Backbone:
């Protein structure tokens, strides 16, 4: 099962992530979060990170994904959706509002489209100006059929840290249920895509009808064992 894309450990897979990197971190409220890769990154003391991620929270399972990096002081900037406990307060909100970290909050749809635009090689997306919020004041605008749109830049990353149910040795990915959240769109928008998987199989053993992310977008896979989310 040898392949240059298959790494033995999460530590090996993230060994070249430098300080100051921009990371996309997959997962949504505990499902499809690359916990093993994030913990390996924490062990390496990488810092000054920009993290692009979906909504995150503390939840019953504790802080996960990007929130773990924020809690340890490793992230200087977040581009994210408001955490799920933003109204009621909680551990994620405390981190999200902490001093010393820059936070850019966007809607889930805008975040997904900006990431998708980067993966497709587009120059950005046009968002109705009223939907851009306060950040729209500084954006370039276009008027199309009497409607004003703000030009939002594409979002790319140096590394994407993702989770999938299975991969083959070519990097083709299969997701289980809600693991298919931010992971597929982020896979195509990073220079280096690293995926922890519950199982690695030989090329040709995955049902092609179930493959969501083609291996051409995946640089590294690392088996981490079975999990529920």
Residues:
């Amino acid at each position: 099962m040898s392949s240059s894309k298959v790494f033995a450990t999460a530590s090996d897979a993230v060994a070249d992530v430098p300080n100051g990197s921009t990371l996309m971190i997959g997962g949504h409220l505990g499902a499809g979060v690359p916990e093993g890769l994030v913990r390996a990154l924490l062990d390496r003391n990488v810092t000054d990170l920009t993290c692009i991620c979906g909504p995150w929270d503390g939840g019953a399972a504790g802080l996960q994904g990007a929130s773990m990096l924020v809690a340890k002081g490793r992230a200087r900037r977040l581009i994210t959706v408001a955490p799920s406990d933003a109204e009621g307060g909680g551990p994620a909100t405390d981190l999200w509002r902490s001093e010393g970290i820059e936070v850019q909050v966007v809607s889930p749809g805008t975040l997904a489209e900006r990431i998708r635009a980067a993966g497709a090689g587009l120059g950005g997306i046009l968002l109705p100006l009223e939907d851009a919020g306060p950040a729209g004041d500084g954006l370039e605008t276009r008027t199309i059929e009497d409607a004003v749109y703000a030009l939002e830049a594409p979002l790319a990353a140096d590394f994407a840290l993702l989770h999938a149910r299975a991969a083959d040795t070519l990097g083709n990915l299969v997701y289980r249920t809600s693991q298919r959240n931010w992971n597929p769109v982020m896979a195509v928008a990073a220079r280096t895509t690293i995926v922890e998987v519950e199982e690695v199989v030989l090329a040709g053993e995955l049902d092609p009808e179930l493959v969501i992310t083609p291996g051409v977008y995946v640089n590294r896979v690392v088996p981490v064992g079975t999990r529920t989310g």
